[in-house]
Amino acid sequence: MKINFAPVLIGLVVLAVVLSGSMFTVSQTQNALVFQLGEVVSVKQKPGLYFKLPLVQNVRYFDTRILTLDAADPESFITSEKKNVLVDSFIKWRVVNAKQFYVSVGGDETRAAIRLKQTVNDGLRAEFGKRTINDVVSGKRDEVMRAIRTQADRFASTLGVQVVDVRIKRVELPASVSENVYRRMDAERKKVANELRSTGAAEAEKIKADADKQKEVIVAEAYRDAQGVKGNGDAKASAVYAAAYGKNPEFYSFYRSMQAYRESFKSKSDMMVLDPSADFFKYMKNPRAAGGK
Amino acid sequence: MAWNDPQWGNKSGGNKNSGPPDLDEMWRRINERLNGMFGGKGNRPEGGAPDAMPGGGNLIGLLAGLLVLVWLASGFYIVDTGQRGVVLRFGKYVETTGDGPHWHLPWPIESREVVNVDQVRTVEIGYRTNVKNEMLRESLMLTDDENIVDLQFAVQYLIKDPKDFLFVDRSPEEAVRQVAESAMREIVGRNKMDFVLYEGRADIAARARALTQQILDRYKTGITISQLTLQNIQPPDQVQSAFDDAVKAGQDRERLKNEAEAYANNVVPRARGFASRLKEEAEGYQKSVILNAEGEANRFSQIVTQYAQAPQVTRERMYLDTMQTVMNNTTKVIVDQKGNSLLYLPLDKLQQMVSQPSADSLSQPASEAASAAVPVVPVDPRSRDAFRSRDREDRP
């Protein structure tokens, strides 16, 4: 009935110690190196559970995820036109060969990062020295990045790492040059503004002048037509008059004169100083005067 | 490294909710999984514990069994809607689980990570929280024509693949910021300032988004960009006023043109109106002149017919009729010059005498008549003097 627990317990403890010393896991994000008395005996690249000899062997883990190396301050480079530019870049890299990584930089990420940074900066310096600002800012940016990536990756393999990407973030002009850029932009905008205003004024003037021209032409054409119509009326009237008066020109002259007298003298303020010898008064002076003159 | 996390407490908490109801089911699954894993070796000390229970029934056996139960229950976890669970066995990825309750083999065999995949995360570039809060270092960008623009944007992203998100990049969220900034600078650098500032806004955002996504995919970050929104694009503060002025100039130009159009729209139709007035007037004149002529001609024709029958009498009658009308209507002074004596005629006095009785109604006809019959008589005394002096000059 009575069970002696002591041997079972001791056995369990011993088993636990031996197992914990002889098993290890490699995570999805890691590679592991197994050392036996300081010497690398195997590289575990796949995640999972592994066994080792307890006490004699020990394990070192290396994170194989992608790391980002982002410089805190921009570096200054000189382009082919001897202009200074400030450049910010970041490097994406990861450990691919844990053994090489351990051998070359002692498995220290910071040391590897410093060496990568130097290489990339050298690459950038060389690439920028070959190109103009415009190239690195726009046209050849991609090309520059690709060239540096390739070159850095070649070097990186000696460190047991892989350069996934090198990307240029900021390409910036030094402050003093920026001021010049602003001044130039300012001047350009002023130029544009003046041009807009003056072309606006010019177009407005053109529209107005065109309107005035149209007005003059319309009025003049109307005047011409009107005069034509009037002349036509006058001509027809003349023809009518001529046809009628032509029947007796002498009588017309008399008749028209009578009409004119009547029209001309019809106000009391018209003063006539008359000589009694006028024909009109002939009976006034002499009632027996013969008819006619 | 999930098994380093102090998760034990959390798991036993979760166990209280979902553990007890289906212990049998749980036990079967445990056995299946254990057998599947160790190929039926089953010689682990924990495996023996339940067998001891029926035989023993003492306190230690019960305690050991309880401990094992708690340990097994620690494998329970709940994945909320919008989350994914990632299960690792000895550090190796096994499966991704959807929402609902799940169980995995307890520590140290399996571990899990829960990732929120539906939550939209945001990275702000060029500003922080508010557009006013600018980060000039991030927002000022060079364009192709070596101008500088001030650009702020936000990137919204989701986790598409929890496995990649967890295991490929050590800081995937930081990568989004760096890649987005780099991509945007590349896109802006390829375009002229005017395009970036004005017509190309939507285009810039779309291209930056595509490039960012492409690069993130290359890094296998497991992130998908849901949106890239430009918060603000403007010229830098230093030149802002000049740009504003240029915009204003554009508007001034439109205004000037509109004003000119308004002027034209006023002038030309008026001219057309005036033209049609001229035309109508001319036609009216034409008609009236012709009709008048016809009327007069008609009248004359009739008279001339009568005249032909008795010329002498008709002529005399017409003359006298006319003279009578004329004499009736005018002021007359009859002077017999045969007397040979000098005669003083105060014409102006006479004129005044005539015009006074009806001065108000006479002003118009008077001037008309004056121009027709007699010299104008001004009221100015000096010219009256002049008139007199001329009279005097005439006399000798």
* Shape call of chain B: rod-shaped
Q: Which shape of chain A, going by the Cα principal axes?
A: rod-shaped
Distance between the termini of chain A: 191 Å
Task: Quote the CATH topology of the domain at 121-235 in chain B.
Answer: Tetrahydropterin Synthase, Chain A
Beta content of chain B: 15-25%
Biggest β-sheet strands, sense, barrel of chain A: 4 strands, antiparallel
Gyration radius from CA atoms of chain B, angstroms: 59 Å
| Mean pLDDT figure of chain A | 86
Secondary-structure-derived class of chain A: alpha+beta
Number of helices of chain B: 14
Q: Main β-sheet of chain B: number of strands, strand sense, barrel status?
A: 4 strands, antiparallel
User: Beta-strand percentage of chain A?
Assistant: 15-25%
Please identify the top-level CATH class of the domain at 67-173 in chain A. Alpha Beta
Please report the number of helical segments of chain A: 8
Runs of chain B in which pLDDT lies below 50 for 5 or more consecutive residues are 1-21, 38-55, 358-396
Order of helices and strands of chain B: HHHHEEEEEEEEHEEHHHHEHHEHHH
Please identify, by name, the CATH architecture of the domain at 121-235 in chain B. Answer: 2-Layer Sandwich
What's the CATH architecture name of the domain at 67-173 in chain A?
A: 2-Layer Sandwich
Please state the CA-atom Rg of chain A, rounded to the nearest Å: 58 Å
| Low-pLDDT segments, ≥5 res of chain A | none
Care to give the gist of this entry?
The complex is a heterodimer of chains A (293) and B (396). In chain A, 55% of the residues lie in helices and 22% in strands.
